[in-house]
Task: inverse folding
């Protein structure tokens, strides 16, 4: 198996060198860019499996770079944030970062998180994406406009992650999807354990599409397995 290629976008030379050396010692290929301009140049010249992105950078901020990367690619992104910058972590996860690590951080923990993200990125896709609208129990899912309409044709607001998960369910009805598979179709990030991250999104989604979220029948929990979408889904 080829070594994973990691791009570190960090302007602090000492932190960047420490990260690069630690990743190389762990069997990965690591390169450094000090700002967004250097990151763009690196990514034009090479392909990478994951980006470590500092929030505080000279010029374009890490949050802006994260947003740009997510529009163009599904590459896993780990953000480095200051310990007291909770808003940066929240915004970073919402705009597409897959995980965050606060400074000062444990290099061993960071490498473990990186390996976890790389494993999830390597999971087989849940199915080739389709662009046709999908209907279940009177609900309509529009993958192109990324909108959900209830049986009365009223639009129902979903977060990015909720829509990603619902779309995965609709494309795989009757199949048990693990939490790792569901995490793989979102850019939800690991603000906590995988179980908590996905379960929170599932809970919110149930509140919007189930008749009784406390006794769900459309999104069933499969003990020790994950979740299964029980509704019949048709392309329209």
Result:
């Amino acid at each position: 198996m080829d070594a994973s290629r990691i791009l570190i976008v960090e302007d602090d030379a000492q932190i960047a060198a420490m990260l690069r050396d630690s990743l190389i010692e762990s069997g990965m290929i690591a390169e450094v860019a000090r700002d967004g301009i250097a990151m763009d140049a690196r990514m034009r010249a090479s392909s990478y499996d994951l980006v470590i992105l500092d929030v505080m950078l000279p010029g374009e901020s890490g949050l802006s770079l994260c947003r740009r990367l997510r529009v163009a690619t599904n590459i896993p992104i780990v953000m480095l944030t200051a310990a007291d910058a909770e808003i940066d972590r929240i915004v970073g996860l919402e705009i597409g970062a897959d995980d965050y690590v606060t400074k000062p951080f444990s290099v061993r923990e960071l490498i473990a998180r990186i390996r976890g993200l790389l494993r999830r990125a390597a999971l087989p896709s849940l199915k080739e994406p389709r662009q046709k609208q999908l209907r279940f129990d009177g609900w309509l899912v529009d993958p192109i406009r990324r909108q959900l309409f209830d049986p009365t044709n009223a639009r129902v607001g979903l977060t990015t992650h909720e829509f990603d998960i619902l779309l995965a369910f609709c494309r795989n009805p009757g199949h048990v999807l693990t939490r790792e598979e569901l995490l793989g179709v979102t850019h939800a990030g690991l603000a906590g354990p995988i179980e908590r991250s996905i379960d929170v999104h599932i809970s919110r989604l149930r509140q919007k599409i189930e008749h009784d979220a406390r006794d769900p029948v459309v999104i069933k929990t499969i003990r020790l397995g994950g979740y299964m979408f029980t509704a019949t889904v048709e392309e329209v």
Remarks:
- The chain has a mean pLDDT of 85.
- The chain has eight helices and 13 strands.
- The longest strand covers residues 77-82.
